[in-house]
Amino acid sequence: MAANSVRVAVLPGDGIGTEVTEATLAVLERLTRRYGIGLSTETLPAGAFHYQATGEAFPEASFQAAKSADAILLGAMGWPGIRQADGTEIAPQLDLRFRLGLYAGVRPVRAIPGVPVALADPRAGGIDFVLVRESTEGLFHSRGTGLVTEDMAEETLRITRATTEKLSRFSFRLAERRAARLGRKGRVTLVDKANVFRAFAFMRAVFDGVAKEFPGIESGHHYVDAMALDLVRHPWAFDVLPTENMFGDILSDLAAGLVGGMGFSPSADIGDEHAVFQPAHGTAPDIAGKGIANPTATLLSAAMMLDWLASRGAGGAFAEAAAELEGAVDGAFATGLRTADIGGRDDTAAVVRAVSDRL
Ligand code: ATP
Ligand code: MG
């Protein structure tokens, strides 16, 4: 990737996906001018309404353009009542995950100062951990192909050594970077159910093997049920939490609830070559079209994207811009920005203004 010629494919999708994407592109434009970083965007069609209009949810041309870009920024896709002919949901983001091998679903969970949270312990510091959801196998392995007969249904849980090693290595490297940034010892905790399923005992053994490569980082395990309890009891105790696909799906919604809701939950789906950055939320039909969607999750996802591009050789200015964007979001909420999802009156445009003013 040549510095100053980074190409980002943008898939706004449906519902508030288009609104939070537009807001984020406006902020990114200001940021790229301010930092003199060359970043061009190309908006591509895909999603439920595109399916309704054309019979295609994710045109091959959009997929290829996304694949050849340096990074992919996605809004959200899907709409109630619009389903593919076979009855399955319209979810091009899942196609991207599987076709581009995006095994690490990274969900940072950080309480933004000023945003009301349900739990806090001033002595323990704020909530700041990262879920790393395996995103290509686990209980999603038989997605859409599970066996269903008149009398029973069966889905497959698959854990492979290769993917578990990659997921584990990714998690330990992330813990190293966080430890350096936060000035504390890093800790990686695998979330599993090794007491019941042989597949998870296998996952644990593979994880433990990788842990030996990272003696500077603490490693441990936690059963998923106990983790659900402890994330509510003392979420500030955790650092990096790799886990199986379905567990990660569920825990990431729980985790979003800890820090203000879906509007504050960024995410990235990262593979060896490609990465998709998107808010963890969906298209929110109940508030779509009203201009009140909270774009914070997408703004923070864009910051993750700039940081990832920097790590891929786009240049230090991208890392600086990422930190600046995150700082601007924090600053806006610290000084009173309050979006509708946390009981305030600030709409999408107000967030764009408040964040842009701080860049
Ligand atoms: P999916 O099936 O894609 O996970 P979902 O049905 O779980 O979608 P979401 O769209 O993720 O639903 O969000 C659930 C609700 O949370 C929405 O209906 C909306 O009220 C609220 N919500 C989600 N994202 C935002 C946002 N960015 N700003 C404000 N409210 C939001
Ligand atoms: Mg959901």
UniProtKB/TrEMBL annotation:
Alphabetical keyword list: Manganese, Metal-binding, NAD, Oxidoreductase
Ranges for domain Isopropylmalate dehydrogenase-like: 7-355
Tree of life domain: Bacteria
Pfam families linked to this entry: Iso_dh (PF00180)
Gene3D superfamilies in UniProt: Isopropylmalate Dehydrogenase (3.40.718.10)
Cofactor(s) essential for the protein: Mg(2+); Mn(2+)
Protein name: Isocitrate/isopropylmalate dehydrogenase family protein
High-level lineage: Bacteria, Pseudomonadati, Pseudomonadota, Alphaproteobacteria, Acetobacterales
